[in-house]
Write a structure and sequence with these properties.
single chain, alpha+beta, 34% strand, elongated, binds copper (II) ion
């Protein structure tokens, strides 16, 4: 009898846990969809660009870039966030660069950049 009660209690707990996991799982899926699209949008290759403005104070970079295939974007001059402000230390206006841009939290962010010499 004690075992039966324990089993019922366990079953109830498991059901609760499953319901909880299901609920949080679908919530996580929403976020995961964002992440997945961000990752899917990330180009696998570096894109070409030229530095037009370096803004260390706000960790932003203006780049005249060629087409960004992964982001479905034609060539243009635009402002990017940079993932790490220190990335700007070695960049100067006029530098030819190769860079990777990803959509992070809805913002186009340079996650990798290197000068082309
Ligand atoms: Cu652009």
């Amino acid at each position: 009898m004690t075992h039966a009660l324990r089993n019922i209690a366990l079953a109830a707990l498991l059901a609760l846990a499953a319901a909880g996991a299901g609920a949080s799982g679908s919530h996580a899926d929403d976020h995961h969809a964002d992440d997945a699209s961000g990752q899917a949008a990330a180009p696998t290759e570096l894109s070409d660009g030229e530095i037009r403005k370096v803004d260390p104070d706000s960790a932003k970079l203006t780049i005249k870039h060629g087409p960004l295939k992964g982001l479905d974007m034609p060539g243009m001059t635009m402002v990017f966030q940079v993932k790490d402000g220190a990335m700007l230390d070695r960049l100067q206006v006029g530098d030819k660069v190769r860079f990777r841009a990803e959509r992070i939290s809805g913002r186009l962010t340079v996650t990798e950049i290197e000068s082309v010499h």
